[in-house]
């Protein structure tokens, strides 16, 4: 029989039914699990017998969530974390040791950068940054002790595209662990394992949840690396709660249909902004004007749900524009059913210096739209009135 399609896997991958034969998987809100005998307990704890021990180690809800994601990303193994940042940190800390060197994209989320250039050096782990869209930059950043390469693509928030096939080959040639943050694309639009990624990390808080309700993260990839990450999580406590796992697993059932609408609305917003006289530049991966349009078309099924633009008038105009919005939410989150407008320079990337922001394309007037699932005419009307009011 042919394997099920993406949409079906997301819906029909479920934990085993209990004796009650429920249709929807129940919540397993328990901190621990019982045993029928001392011998069974000993066998489970020793690994001789499969079974649940403690929800920090594993729970039917978190196992179902990671089982779905593993199938959707087409990877050998997966494990869940309490947040997306926990997934990023564990994917690095569990695999690196003093004396190792990491190469990362300079165009990554501010907290990911802080882990790499501030926290890890305290443990004796050195780093270099490369330009996400410059293959030569990645090659030049490598050292004999480079152990891991970390990239986020599309990048946050300027939507630059890393050449995953090139980076995958580069890592194989130099025996380097290849880690990809796939948060913006989700497995519906992009599957980094197909390009050689060893690990894929997600902030499930974003598109995977899709409604701004819970925190969560995930690490998917090769068993040899996921097992090390899992052991690090169970011993340090960054595990996902059963309730959040249950919510996220249910959310995956609608990921495909949600991403289709996000992408359709985002593309319509790009076309609107591209012809507006008050907008200096617009960024969207599947727009022919994007510098890496051909690569984005190759790697991404659709263009995604994020659109970036630079308003005429800089930071002051941007502030007036944001304050005039009535439908869009002003929050640092993304991937929500509700459309969101964010000023990265003063929020998500405020910890970067002005020079660092400029280097990765974050200008004072740059606005990031996380395009939601509202009717596109209402989204465009809100942006139109805010552009007029902010003149």
Task: Tell me what you see in this structure.
The chain has a seven-stranded mixed β-sheet, with helices on both faces. The chain has a five-stranded mixed β-sheet with strand order 8-9-12-11-10. The chain is an alpha/beta fold. It has helices at residues 6-12, 38-46, 60-73, 84-93, 110-119, 135-141, 164-174, 186-189, 223-236, 242-252, 255-274, 293-299, 314-324, 354-359, 376-389, and strands at residues 77-81, 101-105, 126-130, 146-152, 177-181, 199-203, 217-221, 279-283, 306-311, 329-330, 340-342, 366-370. The model has no long low-confidence stretch (mean pLDDT 95). 48% of the residues are buried. The protein has two domains: 6-252, Type I PLP-dependent aspartate aminotransferase-like (Major domain) (Aspartate Aminotransferase, domain 2); 255-389, Aspartate Aminotransferase, domain 1 (Alpha-Beta Complex). The longest helix has 20 residues, at 255-274. It is globular, with a radius of gyration of 22 Å. Helix 7 links the parallel strand 4 and strand 5.
Could you name the ranges where pLDDT drops below 50 across 5 or more consecutive residues?
none
* Rounded Rg: 22 Å
Q: Characterize the largest beta sheet: strand count, sense, and whether it forms a barrel.
A: 7 strands, mixed
General shape: globular
CATH class of the largest domain: Alpha Beta
- How is the CATH topology of the largest domain named? Aspartate Aminotransferase, domain 2
Helix content range of the residues, please?
25-40%
Distance between termini? 60 Å
Number of helical stretches of at least 4 residues: 15
Q: How much β-strand is present in the residues? A: 5-15%
């Amino acid at each position: 029989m042919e394997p099920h399609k993406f949409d079906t896997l997301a819906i029909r991958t479920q934990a085993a039914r209990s004796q009650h034969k429920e249709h929807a998987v129940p919540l397993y809100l328990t901190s621990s699990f019982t045993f029928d005998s001392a011998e069974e307990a000993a066998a489970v704890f020793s690994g001789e017998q499969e079974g649940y021990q403690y929800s920090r180690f594993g729970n039917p809800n978190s196992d179902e969530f990671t089982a779905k994601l593993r199938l959707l990303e087409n990877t050998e193994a997966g494990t869940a974390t309490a947040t997306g940042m926990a997934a990023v940190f564990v994917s690095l800390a569990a695999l690196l040791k003093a004396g190792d060197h990491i190469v990362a994209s300079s165009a990554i989320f501010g907290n990911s950068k802080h882990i790499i250039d501030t926290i890890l050096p305290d443990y004796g782990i050195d780093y270099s940054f490369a330009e996400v869209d410059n293959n030569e930059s990645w090659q030049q950043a490598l050292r004999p002790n480079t152990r891991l390469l970390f990239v986020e693509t599309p990048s946050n928030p300027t939507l630059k595209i890393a050449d995953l096939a090139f980076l995958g080959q580069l890592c194989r040639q130099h025996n380097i662990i290849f880690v990809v943050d796939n948060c913006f694309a989700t497995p519906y639009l992009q599957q980094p394992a197909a390009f050689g990624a060893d690990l894929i990390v997600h902030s499930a808080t974003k598109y995977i949840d899709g409604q701004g309700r819970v925190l969560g993260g995930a690490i998917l990839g090769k068993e040899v690396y996921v097992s090390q990450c899992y052991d690090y999580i169970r011993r340090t406590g960054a595990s996902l709660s059963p309730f959040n796992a249950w919510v996220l697993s249910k959310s995956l059932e609608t990921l495909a249909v949600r991403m289709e609408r996000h992408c359709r609305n985002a593309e319509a917003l790009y076309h609107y902004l591209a012809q507006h006289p008050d907008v200096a530049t617009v960024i969207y991966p599947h727009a022919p004007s994007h510098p890496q349009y051909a690569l984005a078309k190759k790697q991404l099924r659709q263009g995604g749900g994020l659109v970036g633009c630079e308003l005429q008038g800089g930071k002051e105009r941007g502030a007036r524009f944001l304050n005039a919005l009535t439908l869009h939410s002003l929050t640092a989150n993304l991937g929500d059913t509700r459309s969101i407008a964010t000023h990265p320079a003063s929020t998500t990337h405020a910890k970067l210096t002005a020079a660092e922001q400029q280097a990765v394309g974050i200008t004072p007037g740059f606005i990031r739209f996380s395009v939601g699932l509202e009717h596109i005419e209402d989204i465009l009307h809100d942006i139109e009135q805010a552009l007029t009011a902010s003149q």
